[in-house]
């Protein structure tokens, strides 16, 4: 039994790049504390499978096995399982009907935006929508996922924290003055942060100079959509980002970033390096915050002194209150 909130259990989480799951390949991953094996039969048309990484015979990790055409064979005694997770062959007894329990726990699995998405519970909706991904003439970018020893909520919070740019990303970005004009709204559909206008930024010798406007939405506890229009500088263009944080465990996460943009393709290699560096700095910071779990408002326990909030923290304050309201208990305190 996985001890996570239904809102996380019944949601889709990115767990691998599709390109890393060719026919015949076996991968392991971990989601909400559950070890998973991902594999694709040798048929290139066959979908990726996501299963509990445990053979019910003696408990061997199935990820140590091998793909035999359209079955996955366990490394220990060679029991073979078809794509529905049903045992179809017990080699020492080829004529024996496998026992009723010879069935692997399988999970919902989809391939979208270049990633493999898994739901451990009953999906409450489809894979997160990202319509901008399919707009004509846009660049579709799936960044390298970033692993961090941090609560996923810490990573989302950094994404909506507007006053850290100039400091945490000091070497990476030239960013705006601390600004006070953004509005935060909590509705039944989540949180919206809008009309964040950057004043003209001065370059100060940094690599990025721009003015822009943006808006953000958090429709789900571990998902952030950001829309930015950059009106000058090397990365001029419209950007839509889907940031999906995968909860590996309560204090371990993976940050997945999907970008759709009409920026100049020639600038892409440079932008990829820049974007990856900014994200790595965010994850680096999240890993070092104490407590490791996200303190809610009001807190769930009082082991740590309460964080201090000032007006420019209002997006993260709203996020913490919202997580409390919707009853999140996993990875928070
Ligand atoms: S443990 Fe898998 S076949 Fe025996
Ligand atoms: Fe950041």
Q: Could you say what the CATH architecture of the largest domain is?
A: Alpha-Beta Complex
- In CATH terms, the superfamily of the largest domain is Naphthalene 1,2-dioxygenase Alpha Subunit, Chain A, domain 1
Please report which band the strand proportion falls in: under 5%, 5-15%, 15-25%, 25-35%, 35-45% or over 45%.
Answer: 25-35%
How many β-strands, per DSSP?
A: 18
> What is the fold-level CATH name, i.e. the topology of the largest domain?
Naphthalene 1,2-dioxygenase Alpha Subunit, Chain A, domain 1
Structural class: alpha+beta
Radius of gyration based on Cα positions: 22 Å
- Could you say which overall geometry the principal axes of the C-alpha atoms support? globular
* Total discrete domains: 2
Low-confidence stretches: 199-210
Distance between the termini: 22 Å
In helices, the fraction of residues equals 10-25%
Major sheet details: 8 strands, antiparallel
Overall mean pLDDT stands at 91
Number of helices: 5
Keywords: 2Fe-2S, Dioxygenase, Iron, Iron-sulfur, Metal-binding, Oxidoreductase
Domain Rieske: 13-118
InterPro entries: Cholesterol_7-desaturase, Rieske_2Fe-2S, Rieske_2Fe-2S_sf, VanA_C_cat
Pfam families: Rieske, VanA_C
């Amino acid at each position: 039994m996985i001890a996570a909130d239904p809102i996380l259990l019944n949601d889709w989480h990115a767990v691998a790049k599709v390109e890393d799951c060719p026919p015949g390949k076996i991968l392991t991953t971990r989601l909400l504390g559950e070890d998973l094996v991902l594999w694709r039969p040798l048929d290139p048309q066959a979908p990726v499978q996501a299963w509990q990484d445990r053979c019910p015979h003696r408990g061997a990790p199935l990820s140590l096995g091998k793909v035999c055409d359209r079955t996955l064979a366990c490394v220990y005694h060679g029991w073979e399982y078809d794509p529905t997770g049903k045992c179809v062959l017990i080699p020492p007894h080829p004529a024996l009907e496998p026992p009723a329990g010879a069935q692997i726990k399988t999970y919902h699995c989809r391939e979208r935006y270049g990633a493999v998405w898994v739901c451990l519970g009953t999906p409450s909706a489809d894979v997160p929508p990202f319509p901008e991904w399919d707009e004509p003439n846009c660049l579709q970018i799936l960044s390298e996922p970033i692993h961090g020893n941090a609560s996923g909520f810490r990573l989302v919070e950094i994404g909506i924290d507007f006053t850290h740019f100039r400091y945490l990303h000091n070497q990476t970005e030239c960013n705006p003055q601390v600004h006070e004009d953004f509005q935060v709204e909590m509705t039944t559909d989540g949180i919206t942060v809008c009309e964040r206008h950057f004043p003209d930024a001065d370059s100060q010798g940094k690599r990025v100079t721009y003015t822009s406007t943006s808006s953000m939405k958090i429709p789900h506890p571990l998902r952030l959509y950001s829309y930015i229009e950059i009106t000058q500088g090397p990365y001029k263009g419209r950007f839509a980002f889907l940031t999906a944080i995968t909860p590996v465990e309560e204090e371990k996460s993976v940050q997945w970033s999907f970008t759709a943009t009409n920026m100049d393709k020639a600038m892409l290699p440079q932008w990829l390096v820049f974007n990856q560096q900014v994200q790595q700095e965010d994850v680096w910071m999240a890993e070092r915050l104490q407590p490791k779990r996200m303190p809610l408002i009001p807190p769930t326990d009082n082991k740590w002194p309460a964080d201090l909030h000032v007006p420019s923290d209002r997006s993260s304050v709203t996020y913490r209150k919202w997580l409390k309201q919707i009853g999140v208990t996993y990875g928070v305190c």
